[in-house]
């Protein structure tokens, strides 16, 4: 099995703060190709390194220049994505995200390529790729964010020479569309579904934190505590987790069972606090984990020691298990001492009998 590793260059690694003028660097060539935005007439003045557009009703056109710096042809795959609010708290422009139900117009729905998804660029030349963005007649509220993602193809010869790890280079150019009243949209947050999942091969509690507003929220601080019913000690906790929320997306707040003790089925409560720009949102949500689902997730965890019994918290189980281990060690030591003393007594009795025979 080959491992494909993509190097995301240019803007893909930028978080939401990259939309502030002056914080974005120019795109540089990577892997023998580069991508540049061709800015439209309705581009916001002063921004040149990514698309920041006053969106107008009807068709708006943007374009990118895909530049081949090699002496042989290259193929490039082009995709249009609506960004995600990733579990690490950053905005991911390199794949399709989870849109909140409040999303009215995703970038993927209103933007389309006018070329094939895969293009070939001749040696030492460039290809212009137009993208048409169709805005509803009445416009839209707030902002819409997206990205134009380009992935450099790889030849069979390059793949064969690479061995087990194949490096592929990519660029992701962010797009921000400004609509009606985009500066007047107040932030808001909601809590969605909470359940147990397998995340990076570990059991985890995942809470969906919703941004139902068509606005970007940068630097929100998220804290959370998870309690099992009847236990006032949090079994999972996260404090002051810095999150950038893309508009109308869901942030999967993830709390992994790193100790490998398992998460039992039962009734739980999660408390969530979100702070941003002097405001605080607090939520308390009860949720239930089915025993069968918990067992399936716990059994699939690579770090699983042993799942705690049904209805017992991981901490209680760990204490009981630890106490059991200590008791077993003490019992083993006692048995060893008793066995050693008995062996010594038997040895003394044997010596006495041998001495008596010698005297006779």
Written overview of the protein:
With 360 residues, the protein is an alpha+beta fold. It is built from 4 helices and 19 strands. The chain has helices at residues 107-110, 156-162, 291-300, 314-359; strands spanning 3-9, 33-38, 51-54, 58-68, 74-81, 84-85, 91-92, 111-113, 118-121, 125-135, 143-152, 165-178, 190-199, 202-210, 217-228, 236-245, 250-256, 266-276, 279-289. Strands 1, 3, 5, 9, 11 and 12 form a 6-stranded mixed β-sheet that branches. It has a 4-stranded antiparallel β-sheet with strand order 2-4-10-8. A 4-stranded antiparallel β-sheet has the order 16-15-18-19. The model is unreliable at 10-28, 316-321 and 323-327 (pLDDT under 50).
Question: What's the short story on this structure?
Answer:
By secondary structure, this protein is of the alpha+beta class. The protein is built from four helices and 19 strands.
Features:
six-stranded mixed β-sheet, alpha+beta, 360 residues
Helix-strand sequence? EEEEEEEHEEEEHEEEEEEEEHH
Strand elements, count: 19
**pLDDT average, as an integer?**
83
What's the assembly state of these chains?
A: single chain
Our Rg estimate from Cα atoms comes to 30 Å
Structural class of the helices, strands and pairings? alpha+beta
Low-confidence stretches: 10-28, 316-321, 323-327
Portion in beta strands: 35-45%
How far the N terminus sits from the C terminus, by CA atoms, comes to 82 Å
* Shape label: flat
Query: Biggest sheet: strands, sense, closure?
Result: 6 strands, mixed
Please give the count of helices: 4
Helix content: 10-25%
């Amino acid at each position: 099995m080959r491992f494909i590793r993509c190097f995301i260059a240019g803007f893909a690694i930028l978080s939401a703060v990259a939309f502030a003028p002056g914080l974005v660097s120019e795109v540089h060539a990577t892997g023998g190709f580069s991508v540049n935005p061709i800015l439209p007439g309705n581009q916001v003045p002063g921004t040149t390194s990514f698309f920041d557009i006053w969106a107008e009703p009807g068709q708006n056109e943007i374009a990118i220049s895909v530049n081949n710096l090699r002496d042989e042809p290259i193929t490039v795959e082009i995709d249009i994505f609506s960004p995600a609010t990733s579990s690490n708290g950053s905005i991911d422009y390199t794949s399709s995200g989870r849109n909140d139900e409040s999303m009215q117009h995703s970038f993927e729905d209103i933007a389309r390529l006018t070329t094939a998804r895969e293009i070939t660029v001749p040696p030492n030349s460039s290809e212009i790729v137009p993208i048409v963005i169709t805005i509803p007649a009445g416009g839209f509220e707030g902002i819409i964010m997206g990205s134009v993602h380009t992935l450099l193809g790889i030849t069979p010869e390059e793949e064969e020479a690479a061995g087990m790890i194949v490096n592929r280079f990519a660029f992701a150019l962010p797009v921000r569309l400004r609509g009606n009243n985009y500066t007047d949209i107040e932030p808001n947050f909601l809590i969605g579904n909470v359940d147990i999942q397998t995340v990076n091969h570990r059991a985890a509690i995942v809470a969906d934190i919703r941004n139902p507003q068509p606005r970007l929220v940068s630097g929100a601080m998220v804290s959370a505590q998870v309690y099992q019913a009847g236990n006032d000690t949090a079994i999972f906790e996260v404090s002051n987790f810095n999150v950038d929320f893309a508009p109308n997306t869901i942030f999967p707040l993830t709390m992994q069972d790193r100790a490998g003790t398992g998460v039992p089925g039962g009734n739980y409560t999660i408390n969530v606090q979100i702070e941003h720009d002097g405001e605080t949102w607090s939520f308390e949500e009860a949720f239930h984990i089915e025993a069968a689902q918990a067992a399936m997730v716990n059994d699939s965890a690579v770090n699983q020691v042993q799942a705690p019994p049904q209805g017992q918290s991981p901490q209680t189980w760990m204490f009981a298990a630890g106490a059991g281990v200590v008791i077993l060690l003490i019992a083993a030591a006692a048995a060893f001492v008793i066995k050693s003393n008995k062996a010594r007594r038997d040895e003394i009795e044997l010596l006495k009998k041998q001495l008596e025979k010698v005297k006779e």
